[in-house]
Amino acid sequence: MISVVLIGAGNVATHLFKAFSLSNQASVNQWYSRTLKSIEAYKTQVEITDNLSQLKDADVYIIAVSDDAISELSSKLPFEDRLVVHTSGSVGIYDLDKKLKRGVFYPLQTFTKGADVDFSTVPICIETIKKTDYHILKQLGQAIGSKTHRVNSDQRSALHLAAVFVNNFTNQLYRVAHEITESKGAEFDILKPLILETANKVQDLSPYVAQTGPAKRNDKKTIKKHLKSLDSEHHRTIYELLTTSIKKTHGTSTGSATKRSITKNN
Amino acid sequence: MISVVLIGAGNVATHLFKAFSLSNQASVNQWYSRTLKSIEAYKTQVEITDNLSQLKDADVYIIAVSDDAISELSSKLPFEDRLVVHTSGSVGIYDLDKKLKRGVFYPLQTFTKGADVDFSTVPICIETIKKTDYHILKQLGQAIGSKTHRVNSDQRSALHLAAVFVNNFTNQLYRVAHEITESKGAEFDILKPLILETANKVQDLSPYVAQTGPAKRNDKKTIKKHLKSLDSEHHRTIYELLTTSIKKTHGTSTGSATKRSITKNN
Questions:
Q1: Which of A216, A215, A213, A219 is nearest to A265 (CA)?
Q2: What's the complex ipTM?
Q3: Among B66, B166, B180, whose Cβ lies nearest the Cβ of A174?
Q4: Total number of domains constituting chain A
Q5: Chain A residue with minimal CA distance to B260?
Q6: Where does the DUF2520 domain lie (chains A, B) (predicted)?
Q7: What is the domain extent for residue B123?
Q8: What digits encode the pLDDT tens for the residues B131-183?
């Protein structure tokens, strides 16, 4: 049984608390928040505190607070040489105070406030300085059903950055699609199966192989028609940039007519 | 039982043929292709032809050829006043020859060559000039298990354009993410659950509500770090444009620190 002290009261901390509570290989000894009120609802299930000097012993301390607060919080911990991890994709491992055994336990997933999280769909990227620390964090990830991945700092940064593209930016494209359909009185809902299938497709195929559409086959007529029908200058800029990007990837800046029939859809 | 003649040998025609073959409410009387060879594999299952003058009677003729070929093909059909539809998102209904009863039967989904299609996940957008033609096309869509949606030309154009954003452009963002992870020796596969969850999330929430991340919370420090770590000028341009787009949508051009903790993840 791996014992944990949770530090922080946000989304990640709350989802981790619930997952650890359901696990029989990990348990939360204590939960710290600067504002006790934010975790008061859990006080029948776990010891809560707002006093760092009263932190209990544990195998792993998990700091799940906003990126900017991690470093300072770690320096205030009233002990040395214990395993302390943060959960951020973008904060360095060396931003944790050097008196500690340092690590990162980064769940690479988007969490919805209120909705339950199935950690079997949450890959956890683990970074440690010492190999023995890695093993305990790997066990901790497995204790909540997650797949764990050992990464170095560069890889974690790359994953965090790439996650912005596949999550935030992709979601913004959904938003633009919503604006486009709404402006013509069409239902955004009709696009939902396509959204799902687009995500499903790259579970098995590389995005390169999965690509279709007017930009890939350099279908100038359709591209022109689309640009003309976009009312928003901003939407046009996005359309042009991503069309250029696809052409760049697929070398179709000078497309041939024969390619057209092969890649017909969308 | 609705009888169909299929015209064309591409991806859409082939998937429709398979779906109609499985249905007990629709049947394919004949399949036409300019090049008989491309549908020869099906000749034991259906009558095939490469001669337009030999087309048989049917309730619906489905032209599933490349966009540029639709208009000319329709004008070559050796009959009048029969229901003829094309399957394109972007070609006008009036591009079909006016001697015909004209319609559009547009499956709004991405098809993978070779992979089977479950038409229950394929919304079909139907456009007709006459209401009676609409009803038969609706039945035809239902015969293969699809949900059908009546749309007008503007709505269909908007959906086709929006589909490019949620399918082709989204897939290109996956591709950029692949390039970013690969360049640092990180596994793209770790992003796959996030890709799926991002698509899942907007099945229930609007993209506006589903948004998270540094751009939404105007986290300048992370944005700056990301831009610095992007090696490709092209990737930086995409990052900047979509960050601006998210800020525009969420009015976070001048974000406040208090928003930060609420929207922590990614």
A1: A213
A2: 0.92
A3: B166
A4: 2
A5: A66
A6: 122-245
A7: 2-151
A8: 999 999 999 999 999 999 999 999 999 999 999 999 999 999 999 999 999 99
